[in-house]
Write a structure and sequence with these properties.
- With 351 residues, the chain is an alpha/beta fold.
- The protein folds into three domains: 3-41, no CATH class; 60-161 and 298-327, Response regulator (Rossmann fold, 3-Layer(aba) Sandwich); 163-297 and 330-350, Rossmann fold, CATH 3.40.50.
- The protein has 13 helices and twelve strands.
- Strands 2-1-3-4-5-11 form a six-stranded parallel sheet, sandwiched between helices. It has a six-stranded mixed sheet with strand order 7-6-8-9-10-12, sandwiched between helices.
- Strand 3 (120-123), helix 7 and strand 4 (143-146) form a beta-alpha-beta unit.
- Helix 1 (3-10) crosses helix 2 (14-21) and helix 6 packs parallel to helix 7.
- 41% of the residues are buried.
C-alpha cells in the first residue's frame, strides 16, 4: 500500500495523511490516531528517505548499550526496552542501539548523534557525578535520563523512582516487626540507584538508633548467583541477619535458594523484601513464599520515556521534564516478626 491508497482508504488528502504521520501540530489528535491505526492495520510503511527529506527527522531514538567481554547481560534492560518499544511502535519510531564498551560510552554518544541517524538519545545506569550528563547537555538532540546522578545539579530531563524512600519504607517495616540486624543485597556500588537504596536503609535504621553493619552489605551485579553467594556469606556470619533487603527479585531468587538449602523458613526464621521491577518471568507472588516487595514497573518507565521523547520530537504535547515515581510497598508472606534469637543457621549446620 502506498500513500495515495492509504489516503483513499481514510477519505483524507495525501497531505493530511503525510502531516499526521510526520507529527505536524496542525493535525488534531483524533485524526492522527485514526491514521496511525490504519497504518497498523494495513502494514503501510512510509518511504523513510522521503520522510526525512520532508521533515528533517530520522524517526529514531538512540540508545547506548554497555557491553564487553565478561560484562554481565541484564534482564532488567530487556524489560525496559520492551516498554520503550510499546510506545515507539504507536508512532512508527525506530531504535538505533549502539553497543559500547562501558569505558567508551561518551564517545559512543557523540558518534551516534554525529551520524544524524537519531532524533533523540536515552541513557541509563546513572553513576555518581556522571560525566555523561554534561556531554548530553552539550549535544544537539533532546535526551532523557533514566535515573539521576549524585553530586551534580539535577537540571536535566529525567525519570526516576524514589529509591531512597522505597528502601527507607521497607527497612522501617522490618524494624516495626522487631528486626534489628538487617542485611542488604544491592546492585553495583557505583550506580546511583544502589547508593540511594543504601542511604534510605541506613536512614531508617538511624531513626531507630541502629546502624548498618557493612559486613551485612553486598554490592554486585543483580544475578541469581550473586544473590545465592551473598546470602550464604551472610549466613556464615557469627550473628546472621534476621532480615534481608534485595535490590531485585533476581537477587532474591538466589537468596531464597540459599535460605532453603540452610533449612530456614522465609517469613519466620528470616524475613525478605525485594525490589520488584515487574519482570514477567519472575513474579514475586509466585515464589515458594510470596515476596514482600517495593514495586515500580520498568516497562512502564520505558514506555513513559519513549512517550516524552516522541512528544518532544513531534511537538505533540508538553510533558514534565522531570519525574520522580514513588514505589509501592506490597506486603506478602516473606516478612514476619523477628525470631527470638539469631545464629540458628550456624547451630543447624554444626548439629
Amino acid at each position: 500500500m502506498n500513500l495515495k491508497q492509504l489516503s483513499q482508504l481514510l477519505g483524507l488528502s495525501q497531505t493530511t495523511v503525510s502531516r499526521a504521520l510526520n507529527g505536524y501540530p496542525e493535525v488534531n489528535a483524533e485524526t492522527r490516531e485514526r491514521v496511525l491505526d490504519a497504518v497498523r492495520r494495513t502494514g503501510y510503511r512510509p518511504n523513510r528517505a522521503a520522510q526525512r527529506l520532508a521533515t528533517g527527522r530520522a524517526g529514531s531514538i538512540g540508545l547506548v548499550m554497555p557491553t564487553a567481554h565478561g560484562y554481565p547481560s541484564d534482564v532488567h534492560f530487556g524489560e525496559f526496552l520492551a516498554g520503550l518499544g510499546d510506545e515507539a511502535v504507536r508512532h512508527d519510531f525506530h531504535f538505533v542501539i549502539n553497543p559500547s564498551h562501558p569505558d567508551d560510552e561518551e564517545a559512543t554518544c557523540k558518534r551516534l548523534v554525529a551520524s544524524g541517524n537519531i532524533d533523540a538519545l536515552f541513557i541509563a545506569y546513572m553513576r555518581e557525578k556522571d560525566p555523561r550528563v554534561a556531554l548530553l547537555k552539550s549535544l544537539s538532540v533532546p535526551f532523557i535520563v533514566h535515573g539521576r546522578s549524585i553530586g551534580i545539579p539535577t537540571d536535566y530531563p529525567y525519570l526516576d523512582i524514589d529509591n531512597t524512600a522505597a528502601f527507607h519504607d521497607a527497612t522501617k517495616l522490618l524494624i516495626q516487626l522487631g528486626h534489628r540486624r538487617i542485611a542488604l543485597l544491592n546492585g553495583p556500588a557505583h550506580f546511583a540507584f544502589a547508593i540511594r537504596r543504601k542511604r534510605g536503609m541506613a536512614a531508617a535504621l538511624a531513626e531507630s538508633g541502629l546502624t548498618l553493619d557493612e559486613t551485612c552489605v553486598q554490592h554486585s551485579p543483580m544475578t541469581d548467583e550473586h544473590g545465592f553467594s551473598g546470602m550464604k556469606r551472610f549466613l556464615d556470619l557469627p550473628e546472621w541477619p534476621t532480615a534481608i533487603l534485595c535490590s531485585s527479585t533476581v537477587l532474591a531468587l538466589g537468596a531464597v535458594r540459599a535460605l532453603n538449602q540452610a533449612g530456614l523458613k522465609i517469613g519466620s526464621d528470616v524475613s525478605l523484601i525485594a525490589h520488584d521491577d515487574v519482570l514477567p518471568m519472575l513474579k514475586p507472588e509466585n515464589f515458594s513464599v510470596p515476596l514482600t516487595t517495593t514495586r515500580s514497573s520498568l516497562r512502564s518507565a520505558g514506555s513513559r520515556i519513549a512517550k516524552r521523547l516522541i512528544s518532544r520530537i513531534l511537538k505533540l504535547e508538553i510533558l514534565p521534564e522531570q519525574e520522580l515515581w514513588r514505589a509501592e510497598l506490597i506486603v506478602r508472606a516473606s516478612t514476619g516478626p523477628a525470631p527470638h534469637r539469631a545464629g540458628r543457621a550456624n547451630e543447624r549446620s554444626a548439629g
